[in-house]
Amino acid sequence: MAVVNAAQAAIKTVADPNAAYESLVPLWNKCRAVCSGERFVKDLDSAVGVGNMLIPFSPSMSQAQYNFYKSEAELPGIVSQFARMLVGGLLRKQPTLSLPDGFPEEGYDWIMNEFGQDGSSLSSVLDVALWEEMQTSRAWIFVDYPAVDGEQLPEDRKKTKPYPVIRNADTIINWQVDKNSVGGSVLTKVLVKGAVERYEKNEFHPTFHDCVYVHELDENGLYRVRVYERESPVTEVTIISGQRVENTKSQQLEYKLVEIRDNILVNGERINFIPAWPLNGRIEASEPMLMPVIDKELTLYNKLSRRNHLLYGASTYTPVISGDMTDEQFDDIVDAGLGSWLRLPQGCTATVLETPTAALADMDRAIAASIEEMAKMGIRMLSPESAQSGIALQIRNAAQTAQLGTLNTKVSNTLRQVIMFMLNWHYDTDLELKDISFEMSSDFSPMQAGPDWLRLATEWYQASLIPRSVWLILLKQNDILPPDYNDEAGRQEITEDMEDSMRAQGSDNFATELEGN
User: Fold this and answer.
1) Rounded Cα–Cα distance for residues 408 and 375 (Å)
2) Is the pTM higher than 0.70?
3) Which is nearest to 78 in space by CA: 290, 305, 359, 313?
4) Most buried by CB count within 10 Å: which residue of 18, 95, 123, 136?
5) Arithmetic mean of pLDDT over the chain
6) By CB neighbour count within 10 A (0-12 exposed, 13-18 middle, 19+ buried), where does 422 fall?
7) What is the per-residue pLDDT for 169?
8) What does the pLDDT look like over 183-236, one tens digit per residue?
9) Rounded to whole angstroms, how far apart are CA atoms 405 and 252?
């Protein structure tokens, strides 16, 4: 929760995030840590205190005691594997893309196989975007274009293409939405926090200057970018898993306007919208989609950690000596060690503290109940006695499948807008959304049927009850044909095969027979 009063709003700078952003940062940090693994979860609990993911036994626990307790903690890693499985499930098949008849053939190959800035495929770009979406439900796609020199040859300009840029949730620190002339919502401002690398004093290691890029529509409704830069370089840069983590705490009055980019042209004209799209189609921020199962795993994390601590206590025997003896006599007994014969003075007894075996049984039942709760939410752990080793995860919940199907539809609609804009920019065309068909995963298509229904649909096609195009769509969506199957090229190949077969059989009138068939 973030609360902002009027006085705070008055002193905030361009580099300060809005209240909605600040309210979600703790959730993003929690989700990223759980999805990244045990080491990252423990790093967030560096100091004992209230609000940790690993809850101490008591507020009076010392830091040394907490560090020892944390070394016994165990994160199952269920959500991390589950999230990876969801991304892999959404990208199990190649996305399907259909462009209008007559569109340049290289356009399809560009989008499917050279979509990224580094020439990576569309599936590779989606893998990065979906992983961010799983953790934060706040991935953004911006479309950028390399700087084109005015003296560049026309042939070189044709090779220069727009490319998508995936922005993490942490970089989108502010945004504004206004009403357009027809009453709909339009994105009018997006603030992106980043950094500029400069090799000023060391040719091998750069200095970082924090920047804020204000993507906005000016007073004429045309797109421009204002660049604010912090004068002094950043003294400390946080790197986690090879990626720089943006510091959202700005230092007031240090950011200055250094550039206004209002010469961004698309086919010689400025555009009237911001080329940025949230991957799930929702401009306003929302709670991450995996938050319910992440909270459940953190509960399981604490129960497993307490179980491990109890196991440590159960495997350690604590002898108790009661009676009237001197310190020297007690030291002799201690030095004798366990398993030795002891002769105690008259009136003295030796016992051992009872191990917490009953508490262990109760904790194991609580852990099993937590696992069952996670299974009901869409995650299933196979029992240890099964033939498979380790933890097996699968979607078995109708609600989870519906949620993934909804995400698939949202991402497909967003990518359709991005692809349309990139094609129009590069080929100077005026394609509309209705001209492009794109689907990220056909696994969630309502037209999937199964073998029995496919057999029936084939009979309908043979009886001329459905068109060939519908029949081919069913075959593609059920993995019988590859998604990029070209029916026209396939029929041409069939014709050539039939001609070769007739020639091989020595038929003189194969052409007449072919026409008859």
Assistant:
1) 22
2) yes
3) 290
4) 136
5) 81
6) buried
7) 93
8) 678 899 999 998 888 887 788 888 888 899 999 999 998 999 999 998 777 656
9) 44
State the DSSP code for 357: H
What does the CA dihedral 186, 264, 161, 488 come to, rounded to 10 degrees?
Answer: 50
- Dihedral (C-alpha) 228, 243, 86, 387: value to the nearest 10 degrees? -170
Spatial distance between the Cα atoms of 71 and 305, rounded to a whole number of angstroms: 9
pLDDT tier for residue 447 given thresholds of 50, 70 and 90: low
Please name the residue that has the structure tokens 């709909």: 184
DSSP state letters, 446-508: TT---HHHHHHHHHHHHTTSS-HHHHHHHHHHTTSS-TT--HHHHHHHHHHHHHHHHHHTT-T
Within its chain, how far is the Cα of 125 from the centroid? Answer: 11
Yes or no: say if 11 and 252 are a contact pair by the CB < 8 Å rule.
Answer: yes
Q: Which of 397, 363, 391 is nearest to 377 (CA)?
A: 397
Residue 388 has pLDDT above 50, yes or no: no
Confidence check: pLDDT of 247 > 60 = no
What is the reported pLDDT for 168?
Answer: 93
Give kind and range of the element (H or E) at residue 255.
strand 255-261
Nearest to 270 by CA among 392, 145, 156: 145
Burial label for 407, CB within 10 Å (0-12, 13-18, 19+), is buried
Helices assigned H by DSSP within 114-259? 122-136, 154-159
Neighbour tally for 415: CB within 10 Å: 26
Beta-carbon contacts of residue 376 (< 8 Å; ≥ 6 apart): 397
Q: Could you count the other beta carbons within 10 Å of the beta carbon of residue 26? A: 13
Q: Distance (Å, rounded) from C-alpha 119 to C-alpha 274?
A: 24
**What own/partner pairs with CB < 8 Å and gap ≥ 24 does 214-217 have?**
214/14, 214/189, 214/190, 215/142, 215/189, 215/190, 215/191, 215/274, 215/276, 216/188, 216/189, 216/190, 216/274, 217/188, 217/189, 217/272, 217/273, 217/274
* Residue 319: strand, helix, or coil: strand
Strand 276-278 versus strand 172-179 pairing type: unpaired
Report whether 74 contacts 304 (CB < 8 A).
Answer: yes
User: In angstroms, rounded to a whole number, what is the distance separating the alpha carbons of residues 273 and 430?
Assistant: 16
**Whole-Å CA distances, 296 to 35, 77, 299, 300:** 13, 12, 5, 6
